[in-house]
Amino acid sequence: MSTEADTRTEDLVELFEERVKGPIETYLDVCVHCGLCADACHAYVGTGDVDQIPSARAQELEKVYKRYFTRLGRVAPWLVGAKELNEEVLDRLQKMAYQCTLCRRCALYCPFGIDNASMVSAIRGLLADAGRVPAPLWEHTNNAYELGNTLAISDKVFLDRIEWFEEELQDEVDDDEATIPLDREGARVLFVPTPIQIMRFPSVIISAAKIFYAVGEDWTMSTRRFDGTNFGLFSGEEERRDEMAQRLVDEVERLGARVLVLSECGHSYWAMKVAAESWLGKPLSFEVKNIVEVIAEYISEGRLKLDPSVNKDVVTYHDPCNLSRKGGLIEEPRVCLETATESFVEMTPSGEHAWCCGGGGGVITIPEYDEVRLASGQPKADQIRESGAEVVATACDNCKLQIINLAEHYGLDVSVVGVVDLVAQALILHQDKK
Amino acid sequence: MSYWFSWFVSNMLPFITAGVFFGGLADRVYRWWRSPRASVSLVVPPEPRSVGRTLGEIVTEIVTFRRVFKGSRSLWVVSWLFHLSIFVFVVGHFRLFMDFSWLWDLLRLTPEQVDLLALVGGGASGMAFMLGLLALFVRRLRMPVRSISVPSDYFLLLLLLAIAVSGNYMRFLMHVDVAEYRAFFTNLFQLRFGAPVNNVMFTLHFFLVQLFLIYFPFSKLVHIIGGALTLKWTYR
């Protein structure tokens, strides 16, 4: 006689098998439990909690997998440590999956390159099926799904804000004709910011507009799609994830733009540049770039005149995991910063080995995990302190928010700024008017 | 030790062992190879790399354990020497299967020198192997590695330790008549039954090794092939 709970477990198990097929099976076979991933993971290093060790997460997944998909696991679960998919296990999986930031640093240090992030994504998928996405994260996801953006910004509020940004832009460039174009069909570039930038870090949008103005870029923003984020990715709910990617694709195609330029946001770049084609099952008909990438191009082409003496503070750069390690954009932000600032210092390690700040993967939206999040940021905080920098430049909203939190929590005397902002500040526009 | 047991270990078990080992590994590799492609690129960082460069990265990784070196210097010393010793004594064991007098002639080594080479090479690798296992065992008993360990991890270490001890016993404390072993293995490879080698320690050692090989395809030891595949995914 099967109960409702049994049926639910059966359904979950069926969906589960789909997710684990493929590379994940191989990863589970190959992991030798060496523990090198532990010291590579900011969450473990910062909290000391052994549940944060990447191999521990993989093994939790493995225990459930064994219970339903291996002979020994089915007949003698106690022998192979197989676990049933009950509430307790779901709780544990939830904690493990949503406190991971999907940064993939562990994959670099694993002797076999095992990608824990894809295993955590599989677990998130399972949890989404079970209705176990942490509530605040799910709320953001549904806002974006139902209303078009994570912060439920209405069209009216958006237009008001853009109008204000445009006024700021006109002041900055001393030109009443300067605009932030909206819904221009046939523009080369569609620039898509994030709701956090619209509401909290508007300087990023204004700085980007200023730079586009300076090079005379043929660009536009969209009144329909001004949210580049993908909370479906964070919650692990694939339908929403794919839908959010598709919406951006549709908008680029509707406006006929040739380049989708994402703003300073880590995961939106990774989602559209690296993942979208696989999710949507078809190649994109346009290029995907990050604003920092585009600015580096302008600089290399000599189209931007910069005066680094405007930015005299000692600046260091925090590599957002989604841009550098997962996205491959390591040189580009440095091209920007080395030209736009006088005193640039590197943290150690940086680039693809950079420590995750601890704010990615959606964890920053879950207040219940604040303590863990701040503790996970300790390696990053130590790095920042060691660098002697006064300013931390980065190119991702979640990183900025997190580093601001870390600065307060760990008593770091640093300010946090976007790469785009530093470049815009150093911009020399009208040389005759200087 | 009963004669029947030695006879079983020396004549019948090897066929079971070979079947399970090769069959099991083949099944495992087949399953990996046939697994659906990852839905998203696993390459970190996602730069396009040529086949040549990927191959170079994988070979470098296998030969130098570069990632382990980066993660933990002390673990690298233990792990690298441990794995190197395996390579050395596995190659050394070939001397028990076939005659290498052509090689010794080429290198102009006298039989005494060859025996000395075997003693030193086998002895050093055997000791490195055993000490490496002990170090890894101690490491696994401590946190945090203990928290991600399962019974199978300890079982394998102890099994290998028993193999190491029995092997070292033969290497250091017994006279090894290579010709006798060569005759036995030649017989075995020709799929013939014959009299087992009259040596308790050898029978024990041979039995433990076969136990290890039978367990192999169902354990994490498959990392010797699987690890290269996952590395390939991360490099290309």
- Structural class of chain A, by secondary structure, is alpha/beta
Integer tally of domains of chain B: 1
Q: Give the number of helices of chain A.
A: 23
**CATH C-level of the largest domain in chain A:** Alpha Beta
Shape of chain A: globular
Give the termini distance of chain A in whole angstroms: 83 Å
**CATH architectural name of the largest domain in chain A:** 3-Layer(aba) Sandwich
Along the chain, the helix and strand elements of chain B come as HHHHHHHHHH
Which range does the strand content of chain B fall in? under 5%
Percent of sequence in beta strands of chain A: 5-15%
Assembly type: heterodimer
Report what the structure shows:
The complex is a heterodimer of chains A (434) and B (236). Chain A is an alpha/beta fold. Chain A has three domains: 4-132, Fumarate Reductase Iron-sulfur Protein, Chain B, domain 2; 148-298, Rossmann fold, CATH 3.40.50; 303-431, Rossmann fold (3-Layer(aba) Sandwich). Chain A is built from 23 helices and eight strands. In chain A, strand 7 (391-394), helix 22 and strand 8 form a beta-alpha-beta unit. In chain A, helix 16 (238-255) packs across helix 17. The longest helix of chain A is centred in the middle third of the chain and has 19 residues, at 155-173. By secondary structure, chain B is mainly alpha-helical. Helix content of chain B is 73%, strand content 0%. Chain B contains ten helices and no strands. At the A-B interface, helix 2, helix 3, helix 5, helix 9 and helix 17 of A face helix 1, helix 3 and helix 10 of B.
Annotate the secondary structure layout.
The complex is a heterodimer of chains A (434) and B (236).
Chain A: H1 4-20, H2 23-30, H3 36-40, H4 42-47, H5 54-69, H6 71-75, H7 77-80, H8 87-98, H9 105-109, H10 116-129, H11 135-147, H12 155-173, E1 189-192, H13 195-199, H14 202-215, E2 219-220, H15 231-235, H16 238-255, E3 259-262, H17 266-280, E4 287-290, H18 291-300, E5 314-318, H19 331-340, E6 343-345, H20 370-376, H21 378-387, E7 391-394, H22 397-410, E8 415-418, H23 419-426
Parallel strand pairs in A: 1-2, 1-3, 3-4, 5-6, 5-7, 7-8
Helix pairs in contact in A: 1-10, 5-10, 8-10, 12-14, 14-23, 16-17, 18-19, 19-23
Chain B: H1 3-33, H2 51-64, H3 66-71, H4 73-93, H5 101-106, H6 111-141, H7 151-173, H8 178-189, H9 200-215, H10 223-235
